Amino acid sequence: MKTEAETLHGAAQPRPISFAFLAQIILIMNSFIMLYPVVVMVLSAFKTTGEIFEHPFALPDFTQVQNFTRVLGETSMPTYFVNSIIVTGVSILLILVLGTMAGYAVARYESRTNTFILLFFLAGLMLPLKLAVIPLFILLRDLGLLDTRWSLIVTYTAIGLPSAVFIMAGFLRSLPSELEDAARIDGASEPRIMWSVMLPLARPPMAIAAIQNAVPIWNDFFFPLVFIQTDAYKTLPQGLTTFMGEYTTDWGMLFAGLTIAAAPITLLYIALSRQFIQGMTAGAVK
Amino acid sequence: MPVSPKQARTWKHRSWVAFLIVPPVVFMTLFVVYPILSAFAYAFYEWRGLARGEFVGLANFRDVLFGPTMAPVVWNAFLHNVYALVALMIIQNGGGFFLAWLLYKEPFGFRFHRVAVFVPVVLSTIIVGFLWKLFLNPNFGLINQALYTVGLDSLAKPWLGDSSTALGALILANAWHFVGFPTLVYLAGMQRIPSEIIEAARLDGTTEWQLLKNVVWPLVAPSTTILFTLLFIGAFNWFEIPYVMAGLDGSPFGSTDVLGLVFYRTAFGNQSASIQNFGQGSALATLIFLFIVVFASMLTLWLRRREIQF
């Protein structure tokens, strides 16, 4: 349908439209390649292993949900799922709280140490903490946090904090000072001005900072691999490897597990694609 | 600034600012600055499991770079990281540039295509790696099935089991995973080009290719700089896709081994040989880190110079 519409429209101006036609074909092919594996994953989750091999391309019977009920009832996937939600949620909360505190101080109060503090966080933005995983491992062991959800929460917070400070400081600096001056004349205290006057305006940058960090935290695999041994504390990506080891031949189960793991972030992305794209490319787009 | 100097000096005001600034700074110091500085220090010590032994100077660095057991593995892996960087620069970032140009013209359905290209970016690498491992399966994988269907049986092969194709397969899976990112960064870069510039070039009768090469490409140079720097850091930290698709040993025969896997094996051991050596691991991490910092900043400075202001 799409391509036909383009060619019909193009009858009047042949040269530029032939380019548009080619572009359309490339884009459709590309979107097909991007979505096909995901579609196969979801469709196969509704099939038995036999059906997957016999009719790999057929539409399944969507009422056939026993793979999902088995994944949720018989495996540790629900535990991994809950752990992922706790770890991602608490990390984002800490990133936003600490990032807003530092960002607000740097943006709204003049101080000689401001440049130093921003440089300090800038360094954190550049350094891949992955390469410091050995000392981090020993530090977490000494703090008694190794093999707990907290080991992941503090690591993700440390990784996400610098970008949140920059996003928050950049936005808060742009707010006019008349707002706080008016509140100050009315006798409002500094904490009160921050909480009731400035922060209600800062929801958009908070959303960007949250989204920018939520996807990598939800999907991270490296730090759980190093820090977590106990099955009860594993997050989804790490739990999936355990799960895939147990059900190597039960394809229906495997695809149902993958679908459940991918669903929250993918559905959220489809619902909020504009904000997701803006948030995830925020570091690379001025 | 809104706060008067007199006010700023009051104890109450200072303690409020300190209350805001101290917790984040302490947190960063403890969990970022301290580990990174320690990583350098650890590399100069001998380690017995988790216990630090004596100071050994540069011995760990020597073992990593020139030792008979470590050095061949490290250099082999380094070469694969370089391959991945070059290939991804062309396929992932270059492909992203062309896709962005197609989307920039806002053809029919461009909103759908823009959302679709970014779907794999939000998926977990575990899922991406697993799906591609299935598609590349020699017996029932989609890729070989498709080749049989169109009669190109001779081209079908065990993509991940053949040491001549395994690394290429991982690179393509990675490109599928992340091509949406450069695409949308370039798209944002193109949308910032003043439309008069493109209109003027069009009126001068430039061809599509000339427009892309002489106008668009130079004007999105800031995006290129950032994307290249991020890809550089990512390529030398590459771990997840090789780990999921080829395993911790970079099979077959080390043909997919990369520095991230070598680092993980050295520091935390693996099933076949569960010896961990934090000293050599830290030395390798320090070397990767210094390599990234030195080369990434040199390349960034060089790329910055060719950016045009508009």
Automatic annotation (TrEMBL), chain A:
* Record membrane topology: Multi-pass membrane protein
- Report the PROSITE patterns cross-referenced here: ABC_TM1
Keyword Transmembrane attached? yes
Task: Indicate yes or no for the key word Transmembrane helix.
Answer: yes
Gene Ontology biological process: transmembrane transport
> What cellular component terms from Gene Ontology apply here?
plasma membrane
Q: Where in the cell is it found?
A: Cell membrane
What superkingdom does the record give? Bacteria
Which residue spans traverse the membrane?
Answer: 21-46, 80-104, 116-138, 150-172, 193-215, 251-272
The record's Gene3D superfamilies line, in alphabetical order, gives:
MetI-like (1.10.3720.10)
In this chain the ABC transmembrane type-1 domain maps to 81-272
Q: Which UniProt keywords apply?
A: Cell membrane, Membrane, Transmembrane, Transmembrane helix, Transport
InterPro entries of this UniProt entry?
A: MetI-like (IPR000515), MetI-like_sf (IPR035906)
| Protein family according to the UniProt entry | Belongs to the binding-protein-dependent transport system permease family.
Name used for this protein in its record? Carbohydrate ABC transporter membrane protein 2 (CUT1 family)
Question: What's the source species for this entry?
Answer: Microvirga subterranea
Q: What is the lineage of its organism?
A: Bacteria, Pseudomonadati, Pseudomonadota, Alphaproteobacteria, Hyphomicrobiales
Automatic annotation (TrEMBL), chain B:
Membrane topology type: Multi-pass membrane protein
Membrane-spanning residues: 16-45, 82-103, 115-135, 166-188, 215-239, 283-303
Q: Which GO terms describe its cellular component?
A: plasma membrane
Flavoprotein as UniProt keyword: no
**Localization annotation:** Cell membrane
Major location category of this protein = membrane
Question: Quick one: a GO biological-process term for this protein?
Answer: transmembrane transport
Q: Which UniProt keywords apply?
A: Cell membrane, Membrane, Transmembrane, Transmembrane helix, Transport
Matches recorded under InterPro entries: ABC_transporter_permease, MetI-like, MetI-like_sf
**Residue span(s) of domain ABC transmembrane type-1:** 74-299
Q: Which family does it belong to?
A: Belongs to the binding-protein-dependent transport system permease family.
- Could you identify this protein by its name? Carbohydrate ABC transporter membrane protein 1 (CUT1 family)
- Recorded source organism is Microvirga subterranea
The upper taxonomy is: Bacteria, Pseudomonadati, Pseudomonadota, Alphaproteobacteria, Hyphomicrobiales
